[in-house]
Specification:
Number of domains: 2
Strand content: 35-45%
Radius of gyration: 22 Å
Number of strands: 10
CATH superfamily of the largest domain: Impact, N-terminal domain
Order of helices and strands: EEEHEEHEHEHEEHE
Helix content: 25-40%
Low-confidence stretches: none
Structural class: alpha+beta
CATH topology of the largest domain: Ribosomal Protein S5, domain 2
Number of helices: 5
Distance between the termini: 18 Å
Largest sheet: 5 strands, antiparallel
CATH architecture of the largest domain: 2-Layer Sandwich
Amino acid sequence: MYFTVGCDSSAELSVKHSKFLAFCARVSDEEQAENFIKGVKKRYSDATHAPYAYLLGERCDKSRASDDGEPSGTSGVPILEAIKNAGLTFTAVVVVRYFGGIKLGTGGLARAYGDAAAQAITAAGKAVFDLCTTYTLSCDYGDISSLHNKIFSFGGIIKQSDYANGATILAAIPSDKCKTFLSSLSDASSGRIRAVAGEEIFCEIKSEV
């Protein structure tokens, strides 16, 4: 299981007349993260600085942070720490700064960048991804309601469905619940609902705002 942001978000923070605009996005890989960063920088090309950080991987094992011209360690690292402190991965944050004429010092800069990133992350909410097993489930019309209830009660999701002739549903069920899911399905339908296991994949199973 891992957590990432629920949606793209932004936040604004003012510190001693300097304006910090933070932008947060869910990204799937380095290419997507870099494209997101380039897009923000292009949109705010008149800004003084645009430090950023991103964290990737189901085990949070890939990261990058850039100060973008700010004093070393005062911006990219605090942004990355905000992502880590939120327990997220597959997340990129860019914080655009417009200098307000008053120097903040290294400590002040670090706090401002970290706080701006944290605010954007909080605004994005959280999405939960769990390792799931896919199942092709088929049944007659009379068992459709029961099938739906079982899928959702075990925290599963419906990825595809076809109701042209009875029901054929591609569902993803958290892998640690598969054994009890199949047993419960069999008991509820007296074996009428048929299940064929497929691949294991990570799926978004719940969002927290």
